[in-house]
Structures are given as C-alpha cells and as structure tokens.
Amino acid sequence: MQTHYQEDAGLIAVPESVFGIKDLEVLSLYKNLINLIPAELLEIHSLKRLNLSANKIEILPNNIGALHDLEVLDIQHNQIALLPEQLCELSNLRYLLLGGNKLEKLPIEIKNLSKLIYLNITHNNFRFLPDEISELKALLELRIYNNHIEELPESISRLTNLHELHANDHTPRHHGCRLGIMEARTIMFSLRNKIRKPC
Fold it and tell me: Residue 178, Cβ neighbours under 10 Å: how many?
C-alpha cells in the first residue's frame, strides 16, 4: 500500500509529486494552506483515504465522485459552504468527516452512500437534517452537535443500525421522547434534542 503524508508543512497547493505516485491509497495533507483541490488529484483512482482537513479549501469540485474507491474522506476545518451532489457518487465511502465548515445543508443524494458507517457534520450552520438521511442503513455513528438544529426528523428512527448519536441544542423540552431506535442498541446521547413527532 502506497501512502503519502505532508502534514503541517506550510503547503499552499497539492504537490505535483503526489500525482506521480503509483497505486497511492492513503494521502494526508492535514493542516496546510491549500485552497484548491486540483483536477489531477481526482484522477488518482486508487485513493482509499484522503485527508485534507485543516486547510483553506472553499469549494469541493463537482467531479469528486471520480474517486470511486475512496473509503475515508476528511475535509474538516475548511471553508466549504456547499456540497456537490456528485459527492454522493462515492459508493464505497465509509467515513465522511465534514465538521468545522460553513455548510447549511446535506444534498438529498446523501441517501446513495449505502456503505457509510460514520458521518460527522459538527460545527457547521445546519438547521435541519434531510429525511433522506434515514436511508443510510449502514450508519453506526452520527455526530451533529454545534449546529443550529432544533429538532430531529422523525425519519431518524429508521436508522436501525445506529449505535451512537451525538447532538445538542441545549433545549430540555422533549428530552424524554423515544427516538424509536432499537432499544437493544447502545445509543450515546450528548444531547437535549427534540424530535418532530410529539411525545
């Protein structure tokens, strides 16, 4: 397995040397000053893990879906305000880390990420979760805290494999509502959230 790490190196762009690494599966450019994802990076079809967190990226390119083998995508702590629907063409994606951006909504195509087991959208500007999130049947852990979400969709009860839900809105009302998730599951709530369906 070929890996490449250049973390906290003051990079302002993805090094061209990366594009010539044969069979590259893991690339981490964490904590640099990169503001653009070049087209050449999206041609590395062997990539399975990509860490571009803690950079200056504002736009996620539409052809991000070309990375068909990608299993882990970490783009936390950037300045991304919009997710292209093509992100949801990453059919092998298992971990998606979006925390610490400027996001307000998830594309409804999120439902197509059928292998996703971990989703982190913390520290953004979300006000709601789409009902389509209930189609993520493989999801084990969902982190949504530090947003502006005041209530959870009733459809979240259909996430029957969910083990951990981390959320908070500092709202004690409806704290006792059952989410309808299987009682045998170990749900970890760091929340005082509401659900649309009244108790």
Answer: 10
Contact 56, 79 (CB under 8 A): yes
Instruction: Kindly give the pairing relationship between strand 49-51 and strand 95-97.
Output: unpaired
Contact, 74 vs 97, CB < 8 A? yes
DSSP state, 184?
A: T
Rg (CA), the chain: 18
On whether the CB atoms of residues 139 and 119 are closer than 8 A, the answer is: yes
Contacts of the segment 31-35: beta carbons below 8 A, 24+ positions apart: 31/7, 31/55, 32/6, 32/7, 32/8
* CA separation for the pair 160, 136 (Å, rounded): 10
Long-range contacts of 152-156 (CB under 8 A, 24+ apart): 152/179, 152/193, 152/194, 152/195, 152/196, 153/128, 153/129, 153/195, 153/196, 154/180, 154/195, 154/196, 154/197, 155/131, 156/129, 156/181, 156/195
Higher pLDDT among residues 87 and 172, named by residue: 87
Give the model confidence (pLDDT) of 9-68 as tens digits: 999 999 999 999 999 999 999 999 999 999 999 999 999 999 999 999 999 999 999 999
Within a 10 A sphere around the Cβ of 73, how many other Cβ atoms? 23
DSSP label of 172: -
